[in-house]
Specification:
The structure is a homodimer. Chain A has about 190 residues and is an alpha+beta fold. The first copy, chain A, contains nine helices and eight strands. In chain A, the strands form two sheets. The first copy, chain A, has a four-stranded antiparallel β-sheet with strand order 1-8-3-6. The structure holds a DNA duplex (30 and 30 nucleotides).
DNA sequence: CGATTCTTTGAAAACAGTCAATCTGTGTGG
DNA sequence: CCACACAGATTGACTGTTTTCAAAGAATCG
């Protein structure tokens, strides 16, 4: 059950983890199964733990006072769930993290993760690497948001994450791209014609 | 001359640095003075070094095939200059980093910074902390880009970085917000009336 | 099968971009 | 000191895109 996480840590860090370290990780992560439509996190909660997705799909979104939803993050197998800001600062979140299919997770608190990082070199290196990758990915998304048209942003997403288009409803993809579901529907219609 | 950098490292890491460590840092960073309109980095370059701003102002932007500019980053005293993606991956950049006033920098290569990080605990911790803050800040900017109107994004920027509005021409603020200079001008006009 | 959710479509309104002209302030050279 | 050039900001008219709202059409789940 923990194998996908072990593989992930070794792959991201480029370091291997010993059997002893694996046992340590097993004691600090908790297996959780969430059913479709359950929330891992809700607005106002403090994000006490991050979750590594073993199986399933989820999204992180906010809701404004008009009821509009804005999807900040989509995640499937091999992604982390949780609000990084709320987790890092231990402050209440503005977001909901909702599971879209029955989902299996490995969760751990900040203290557990910090302990593992201080004990297991591969864990510390994995976190540094993932943080760096996240900075790069978010910078690219900002660049897309300010420099590309809605259609170009959709094309870019279709290229970088074609799996997302299969797994998530179009309305969520639209909200991830910063457009309405109607606009995305029309963009797709136009594209098929060509 | 190095004091602002030492202060920055101690403040961000929460750790103090010894006189010996300070000397080490001095050997690895290079002082550079750039004149208004000079480039620290140009499209196609590999970002060999990051620069810590002692005095001055700069922006990082891309140019599309129609000649439109998109500002990804604005920086003044106490900010880092350079394309994080190109620096981290050592791949050619899509961006220009241009100095808007005569600017004093402390620059260091990736190797130097990695060496300092492996030698000086405060340096390593500063990098981790700044990376985490960057993830949070970029996530907030993405959220603003997809959830707020142009006017609301301007208000948000005026709140979080009022100094930017003084230091940078409106056309650059507009491009940072993902709108045209004309639209920003009209937004400001509307706001004054209220 | 019925209920629910998601997607598509249409028409009107709101919004932002484009292009061109004008205005304003700054600094430079004569 | 003035005239001029220059860059940045503003304004107007127009175009194009996106949102909004409402309704109808598919797809999915229990």
């Amino acid at each position: 059950m923990f194998e996908p996480l072990f593989d992930y840590i070794e792959q991201k860090s480029g370091l291997s983890i010993t059997p002893h370290e694996k046992n340590l990780i097993k004691t600090k992560f908790e297996f959780r199964r969430l059913r479709r439509r359950q929330y891992l996190l809700q607005e106002g909660d403090v994000c006490k733990q991050m979750g590594f997705v073993l199986k399933g799909a989820a999204r992180m979104y906010s809701v404004d006072n008009k009821g509009h939803e804005y999807t900040l993050r989509l995640g499937i197998e091999g992604w982390w769930l949780g609000d990084y800001e709320s987790y890092t600062l231990q402050e209440p979140t503005k977001f909901f993290v909702e599971v879209l299919e029955d989902t299996d997770l490995l969760t751990a608190t900040k203290e557990s993760i910090q302990y593992l990082a201080s004990t297991i070199p591969a864990m510390a290196e994995m976190i540094r690497t993932v943080d760096k990758r996240t900075v790069i990915a978010t910078q690219q998304r900002i660049h897309a948001a300010i420099s590309l048209t809605a259609e170009e942003r959709f094309d870019a997403l279709a290229k970088t994450h074609p799996d997302f288009l299969q797994r998530f409803p179009q309305s969520m993809i639209a909200s991830y791209l910063g457009i309405t579901a109607e606009t995305l529907s029309r963009i797709r219609k136009k594209m098929v014609c060509r």
